[in-house]
Every structure is written in C-alpha cells, then in structure tokens.
UniProtKB/TrEMBL annotation:
Keyword flag Cytoplasm: yes
Biological role stated in the UniProt entry: Part of the phosphoribosylformylglycinamidine synthase complex involved in the purines biosynthetic pathway. Catalyzes the ATP-dependent conversion of formylglycinamide ribonucleotide (FGAR) and glutamine to yield formylglycinamidine ribonucleotide (FGAM) and glutamate. The FGAM synthase complex is composed of three subunits. PurQ produces an ammonia molecule by converting glutamine to glutamate. PurL transfers the ammonia molecule to FGAR to form FGAM in an ATP-dependent manner.
Keyword Nucleotide-binding tagged: yes
Domain of life: Bacteria
Assembly and binders: Part of the FGAM synthase complex composed of 1 PurL, 1 PurQ and 2 PurS subunits.
Protein name in UniProt: Phosphoribosylformylglycinamidine synthase subunit PurS
Enzyme class of the recorded protein, top EC level: ligase
HAMAP family in alphabetical order: PurS
PANTHER family: PHOSPHORIBOSYLFORMYLGLYCINAMIDINE SYNTHASE SUBUNIT PURS
Naturally occurring in which organism (per UniProt): Rhodococcus maanshanensis
This enzyme's EC code(s): 6.3.5.3
Amino acid sequence: MARVVVDVMPKAEILDPQGQAVVGALPRLGFTGVSDVRQGKRFELEVDDSVDDAELEKIAESLLCNTVIEDWKVTRVQ
C-alpha cells in the first residue's frame, strides 16, 4: 500500500472568497504580515501497487477537482 496526496487549489485567476475571508479576519485577530490566503482541498488516498500515476491523474481530474477552476497536484508519499 502507498499513500498518495492530491492537493487541489483554485486557479490563480479565480476569486477565492474563503481565502479572502481568512485574510480579512487575521488582522482583527491580531495577526499581521499576511497579505494573501488561498484555500484549497487535500485528499489522502491509500492505494495498492497496481494503481499507476496515469490512473491517479484520471482520479484527480474526473472526481477530486473541477478542472475549469482548479489546479491539482498528485504526490506519492512514502
């Protein structure tokens, strides 16, 4: 078994209202120096050795992200 992490983030040109809410709240909570926040999703998958990188990419593209507005990255974790 292997662990795979898929990170999904809004594309740079897409407005991120959740990230904007966080960056707006930080100064009110006493935190300074943060100028931007982007909020995304993280998926951790346990896969067996028969699952190759091409199949992982298909999983990410077809189920885990909206490719119109999100970018994704698959990372195998040891």
